[in-house]
């Protein structure tokens, strides 16, 4: 048995790093923790989240002596604010705030747990200053064996969770550096690709900001130009954005077909077309793609396509039995391409 | 996926993957190999055949995720049965983080199908790690054969995908959707229906 110990006195063999998949985190580590089973090597520590600042976590959760980009720990969710059911994740210097919706984690087509994404803010709400520290909090799904978990929001908010903390890459900085530092043809190529993708992402984000500010998220321009005959499905997809963070993508998950939202009515084929369009745009085949879909020839409309696509991405993930590692890299996911 | 590693040799808990830095490859693996020191864990096989078509490595080289690692002796000819490895980057130094000394060199190649120089380049990339002259000298002072040091190289081969983050770093990246939500958290006036 190889000896792995924590805090620098490590005997993790050289070259090896702790890069667990989400499935390993939930199915091996958290399951054992919840069942109070002994975990062979004490790789993941217990942390009191309220007592530890994110920048102290890295020292406490070191595995071996090699440099790490992410840190893992168990945390027990028992602290609640007096007024409600929300977990108190405040520290001395700031607080962890949930963002977005929880993601369902699957293993072999079975729902095994949920992932919540949190951001660390320095200071006190509502005037906290957002930091680059991100936490993924994984909890087991008690209802993973239920035949139909759709709309089931009763996942427990107490008990053990396993967390991964990392520092978000600063894309703006990366962009600036990349224009200075490339020296070789390969670097040039990769950096160029990255740069243009980042610019595109910035455009989307700023566009979304403006749209949300001016008109509210529901009133995206030129929605009508899509022959989209399932408005209700679209609406409910977007309702989940503003909903509680326990949401799953109900309208999409409700379709049992292997093709998810792309199956069925011809109108929904537009999603496929949009994906193709965006993909070809990013591959520099703009001219060809715009021929296929003339109403999207305007650059603004490309951004529009991208605004629609994230939900589509979730549909794929929810219905296609995603492999833990491939879920975020669906070939039909234009937003991911931007970040690639 | 973990063909060459064999569970019997590695009783590391789930979640540990072979993901060495350039420095680790040179210091812990190449240097020890060249100096004929015991390598523990001895995970990287010596294929001693150069060069390979990239798709022939599966089952022979150490594979982790979509990367392959192996030792080989250096040969001037980089043609394979189906094509050739075209050089992209020459002698990029690998610096030790401990003392800022140059410990090794890295060349980078892309695999092209066909006859040089008109082959069609693929997305297969090969990194070739060598010990630097300084590292070689210090070892030969210790009485080792200098010749052997110069001839050994460590290779890492992988296929560059359009989505490079899909490999092993994706787990510590925010998903694209998360990025969007995160940026929307900044919008005070936003109210959803």
Set out the fold topology.
The complex is a heterodimer of chains A (about 350) and B (about 190).
Chain A: E1 16-18, H1 22-34, E2 45-46, H2 54-60, E3 70-77, E4 94-107, E5 110-122, E6 129-140, E7 159-167, H3 171-181, H4 185-215, H5 231-242, H6 250-253, H7 269-282, H8 286-292, H9 299-319, H10 334-339
Parallel strand pairs in A: 2-3
Antiparallel strand pairs in A: 3-7, 4-5, 5-6, 6-7
Helix pairs in contact in A: 3-4, 4-9, 7-8, 7-9
Chain B: E1 16-18, H1 22-34, E2 62-64, E3 67-73, E4 83-95, E5 102-113, E6 120-131, H2 133-141, H3 146-151, E7 152-159, H4 176-184
Antiparallel strand pairs in B: 2-3, 3-7, 4-5, 5-6, 6-7
Describe the structure.
The complex is a heterodimer of chains A (340) and B (193). Chain A has ten helices and seven strands. Chain A has helices spanning 22-34, 54-60, 171-181, 185-215, 231-242, 250-253, 269-282, 286-292, 299-319, 334-339; strands at residues 16-18, 45-46, 70-77, 94-107, 110-122, 129-140, 159-167. Chain A has a six-stranded mixed β-sheet with strand order 2-3-7-6-5-4, sandwiched between helices. In chain A, helix 7 runs antiparallel to helix 8 (286-292). The longest helix of chain A has 31 residues, at 185-215. Residues 1-9, 144-155, 180-189, 215-268 and 285-340 of chain A have low confidence and may be disordered. Chain B is α+β, with helices and mostly antiparallel strands and 193 residues long. A six-stranded antiparallel β-sheet of chain B has the order 2-3-7-6-5-4. In chain B, strand 2 and strand 3 (67-73) form a beta hairpin. Chain B starts with 15 loop residues before the first strand and ends in a 9-residue tail after the last helix. Residues 1-9, 140-144 and 164-171 of chain B have low confidence and may be disordered. The chains are: A alpha+beta (340), B alpha+beta (193). At the A-B interface, strand 1, helix 1, strand 4, helix 4 and helix 5 of A face strand 1, helix 1, strand 4 and helix 4 of B. Strand 1 (16-18) of chain A pairs antiparallel with strand 1 of chain B, so a sheet runs across the interface. Chain B: InterPro entries: NAC-dom, NAC_dom_sf. Chain B: Residues 12-160 form the NAC domain. Chain B: GO terms for molecular function: DNA binding.
